[in-house]
Design a protein that fits this description.
The chain is mainly α. The protein has 22 helices and eight strands.
Length: 594
Amino acid sequence: MCEPPRLAEGARSVSWLGEEVAGVQVRSAVPARISFGAGDAFVALALAALLYLGVRLAAGAPAQLVGPEISLDPAALPYYGLRSLLRMAAAYVLSLAFSLVYGYAAARSRRAETVLLPILDVLQSIPILSFLPVVVLALVAIAPGSLGPELAAVILIFTSQAWNLTFSFYHSLITVPKDLLEAAGAFRLNWWLRLRSVELPFAAIGLVFNSVMSWAGGWFFLMAAEQFQLGDRDFRLPGLGSYLKTAAELGNVPALLLGIAALIALIVGLDQLVWRPAVAWADKYKLQTVEEAESPRSWVLDLLSRSVLLDHLRRRVVAPLEEALDGFLGRLLPRPAAMARASRSRAVSLARAVALGALVVAAAYGGAGAIALIASVGARQWLLILAGAGATFVRVLAALTIALAWTLPLGVAIGTNHRLANRLLPVVQVAASVPATALFPVLLLLLIGLPGGLSLAAVLLMLLGTQWYLLFNVIAGAMAIPEDLRYTTDSLGIHGLERWRSFILPAIFPYLVTGTITATGGAWNASIVSEYVRFAGITYQTIGLGAVIAASSEAASFQMLLASTLAMVAIVVLINRLVWRRLYALAEARFHLE
């Protein structure tokens, strides 16, 4: 067993206001003031233009659209499960690639950050069911046969997976310890080698846990992505989501429970074969100078580590390919300094001005069309939207408060106790991956007769869908705390509330902000499936912005759908800019490992 390291004379403990706890740097700089500007206005106009363009394309879709029949025969479940798994995998690969490129661009350029972060705020705030009809019908109008619906399903699952991964990677990049960056500079690493050997390893723990959360988010909206109805158009794809939604709409509880069991079996298999090995593998990238008493384990990873064939492939195939890729990318793409010099050239500046002008013209044209479409929304409908927004805001706040109350202590306990983590992490990963939308019809039957009815059930569904964003980010933050820092606080005699105030909360603060911002966006998204529910042919609805969006989508009322969607986007972006972005700036300025 490793002995706790001795402190040097004069060592101090970390506090919230500018001291240091065993390596947790708390910078005294005040976060930069975050304000709305021209970039935000352009993003809002471009979003309205894109939605309007989608509506125009959707108008060209077939007047009637009927998908294949969904069989509730248990023998169909393996095939449906495979189809859903392939869609989820395709969406995840797309999400991971997007997150790495987008997060890197936002973290490496302040100019790009001023545009990319507002866009990311908007993207993660758009409810999936708001643009689902637009995306599906637009792709059906463009792509032939079943290709359009399949592409639409992958894109819609992507929108439930990508944003938390992007936020996690971006925040890891802006909080890389300075000594690691200085070491990379001393070894004269180019941008690619620095990314591969310093930045990606530092971000690995957060990316792994947010990948688990991304898959859980994909399962959550699987039912919506694989089957929905828009007027006379019935969109369906063979898959577990369609199976579960068909069973719920028919009120077939045995088939619903059987589909849930099949989904849980698939989730458990993924946990054992993919996510537990990934968690154990990522643990080696933790920053620490002492050995852990017990680290995360995976029987699959242990089995693969003993494979002679894999070791041979790694040495003979993978290693040479990595060296070739390192050299190719280092030569192909210029260094950041060279890129900065190129960006100052007159030709590049002219091309940027032309491209920006074209974007402004397109956004203005589409924005004008969107405004004309929204103008047909009456005052009574706007009052309905505003009242729904207020009711949904209260539910989101309640769900977030409840989630923080239990995920913070449990997440820290799991992240700082590997023996507990080895026992509870598989349970948590499976529980998070079971989509609450599949369980909701059963929960609705139990709660609909209680005081509060659907309003109480809606808060519960929001909680089931968003609490995992917080839990996994807290676990990732706690697991990323170096073991020697814990020994140091023990030797200082820091325990109880003082330990939480001066050590644990500052250390996990960046991860907590990432979890909170994604959980909030997820809660607003979940309002659509929690405030408007159909079970056994009966529609249950409560006052809320999510219910307005869902009802407008089902009735194919595009003007009301556009107005309510933009209202939700405006609310979420406003909260992000006034609250969460300021906390991001605080995390970057004061709280990170150094």
